[in-house]
Amino acid sequence: MLKLSNLILIMTFLSCAFIAKAQDKLQLEVNIPRLQVAEYHKPYVAIWLEDSQRKVTQVAVWYDVEMENKKGEEWLADLRQWWRKGGRKLALPVDGVTGATKGPGSHVVTLDLSKLLTKQAPGQYKLRVEAAREVGGRELIEIPVELPLNPSNLPLTASGKSELGKVQLTKN
Amino acid sequence: MLSNKILKAAIVAATALAISTSANAHRVWIKPSKTVLSGDSNYVTFDAAVSNTIFVPEHFPYRTDGLVATGPDGNTIDLQNVSTGKYRSTFDIELTKDGTYRIGAASAGIRAFWRDEQGKRQMWPPRSGAAEGETFENAVPKNAKELRVTYGSRRVETFVTLGAPSNKSLAPTNKGLELVTVTHPNDLFATETATFKFIIDGEPAKGVEIEVVKGSMRYRNSSETITLTTNAKGEFSVTWPQAGMYFLEASYKDDKAKAPATERSGNYAAVFEVLPL
What we know:
Chain B: Keywords: Signal. The complex is a heterodimer of chains A (172) and B (277). Chain A has 172 residues and is an alpha+beta fold. Chain A has helices spanning 4-23, 80-84, 113-118; strands at 26-32, 44-51, 56-63, 98-100, 105-108, 123-132, 138-147, 156-159, 166-171. Chain A has one domain. Chain B is mainly β and 277 residues long. Chain B has a single domain (29-108, 150-274), classed as Sandwich (Immunoglobulin-like).
C-alpha cells in the first residue's frame, strides 16, 4: 500500500518532470486589439522568422481560408512585406502554417516554435508580425531574437500601435 | 482677296502649331489599378491616356489598337472590356497564371523629311501612315532637297504580377529603345534603389535622358521630377522617395542608324508602382 506521503512525492516528481519538459516549450502569443469601427473585418496576419540575410522561415498566416474558389487569397498581397518575403512563392494552404482569421483577443501560434528555433543556425533573427485589415490599416512589428535562445531573456515582447496588440514570446 | 490672305495666314499658323506640338510630345501612359496581386486568379484594370499631368486624363485617350498584353508564358492574352472615352481608354486583363505580365505597345520605323520643288516641307510616311505598296525608295524623291531620314522607335508599357515575379515576358526584342529590368519592375519599394538598363537595338544605350515623376502631380506645386542619365553600360538607378505610382519617360538619339536613315532615336515610357515598406 502506498503511503500518502509517497504518493505526494510521486505526484510532485511527476508534475516537476512535466514542468521541466514544458519549460523547453516556447509560446508565441499575438494579441489582436478590439477596435471601435463602423465596419470591422478580422485582420489578415502573417508571422515569420527572418535571419540577418533576410532568409525567411514561415511561422503562421491567418487569412480567409473558408471562401469559395480560394477567393480569400486575393488579399494576401496586402500583407505586403510578408508577400515579398516569400508569401508570394508559397503554394497555399501550408500545413501547420496557414489558418483561419482570428478576431480580437489573445491567440497562441500553433506551430512548435521551440522546434523551429532550435533548428536555426546561431545568429541574430527577427520575428516579424504583419497585420492588414480590410477597410482598415496595416502594421508590421518585429521582435529581435538571438539564437540560440537564452531562456533568461524571455519573455521577448513587442507591441503594435494600431492593428496589433502585444506580441510575446514566452516559456510555456 | 482678303479672305484668301486670312486663309493663308491661318494655314501658316496651323502648320506652325502642328510642328510645335510634335516637338513637345505629350506623355503617354498606361496605368494599372495595382501591380502586385495574389490569389488563384485576379483582375487588373487599366487607364490609358495621353496627358502631361500625371495621372490625370485631360488631353486625349490612348488608342488601344496597338496594345498587346503578354502573359508569364510569353503568350498574348486578350484585353477585356475595352472602352475609349473622351480623355482615356480603359480595359481589364484577367491574370490566370502566376508570374509577370507585360502590357504595352511598340513601334519602329523610318521617317523622311525634305523640301519639295516649291520649298514646302514634306514628310514620309505621313501621320496617317504609308499608303499600300509605298516604300522609302518609291515615295521619297531621289534628289530630295534638305533630306533628313530618321529611324525612330517608340515603346509604352507597364507590368503587373500575380504571385511570384517572373522574367519571361520581360525579355527584350532587341528592337528600338527598351528597358532591361535588372530590378524586377513589380518589386519596387519606397526608399529602396532600383537598377534598370536601357538598350537600343539590343546594345547598351549610353546617355539616355530619363525623367521620373510621381503621380498626383495636380496636388503639389513642384513636379518633383527626378532627372537621370544612363552610364556607358546603359544603366541607371532610381531611389524611390515615396510609395506611389510613377511615370518614367526616356529618350535617346545617336547617328548610328542603318541606311537610308542617318539619325536613330528612341522614346520610352512606363508606369511603375512603388509600395511602402
